[in-house]
Specification:
- The structure is a single chain.
- By secondary structure, the chain is of the alpha/beta class.
- The protein contains seven helices and seven strands.
- Helix 3 packs parallel to helix 5 and helix 5 packs parallel to helix 6.
- The two termini are about 20 Å apart.
């Protein structure tokens, strides 16, 4: 039997693995109203192009909430407007969040555990919000969260890269623990790894 918050679905994978497309298809197939929380900001020409491409393929009926930092508040707002909330993505949010931590700099003199503790407080607030969503009946809500798996490559050469990788790994594990479904994207194909995990035995 699947465990976790039935309102929360996690979609995880590498770059260009099809995460966003799969999450969007889940939302479309639900046939319900959708609010899209975008964490990316148009910081350069490449990001502006990426944002424009994502916007061009989303249904015009979807509501878009641009929020680079405050996830719990954005989800609360989105669920008051729609039945399905698609948060894309945790990876960009964490980058935004780390860069906003001015009081913790310089990184070389700040324990990485302090970054982790503060980031996890943000994630706990998000999960607490998800836990309050209506889970049954015609008004039930769903939260689909997209994130990247960045822990399969080489060890980053710089301290900020290592802190980022480590915190994202902790964040992903925490989200996966609460999610009822965790889809791993590989070459555009989704594998329900939480179901496989719960079925696994010797």
């Amino acid at each position: 039997m699947l465990q976790g918050n039935s309102q929360l679905i996690l979609v995880i994978g590498g770059a260009r693995s099809g995460k966003s497309t799969f999450a969007e298809q889940l939302a479309i197939k639900s046939g319900r109203s959708v609010a899209y929380i975008a964490t990316a900001t148009a910081s350069d020409d490449d990001m502006r192009d990426r944002i424009a491409r994502h916007q061009s393929v989303r249904p015009s009926s979807w509501l878009t909430i641009e929020e680079p930092l405050h996830l719990a508040e954005a989800v609360q707002r989105a669920t008051s407007l729609a039945d399905v909330v698609l948060l894309d993505c945790i990876t960009v949010w964490l980058s935004n969040w780390l860069l906003a931590q001015e009081e913790l700099r310089p990184l070389s003199s700040t324990p990485s555990s302090l970054y982790s503790e503060r980031a996890m407080q943000e994630i706990e607030a998000l999960l607490q919000t998800a836990a309050t969503l209506d889970a049954s009946g015609p008004t039930c809500k769903k939260l689909v969260v997209v994130t990247n798996e960045v822990g399969l490559g080489i060890v980053p050469a710089y301290a900020l890269g290592r802190v980022y990788r480590d915190i994202l790994g902790l964040v992903n594990k925490r989200l996966a623990r609460d999610a009822s479904r965790v889809y791993l994207m590989i070459a555009g194909l989704a594998v329900d790894i939480k179901r496989l995990h719960e079925d696994a035995s010797l």
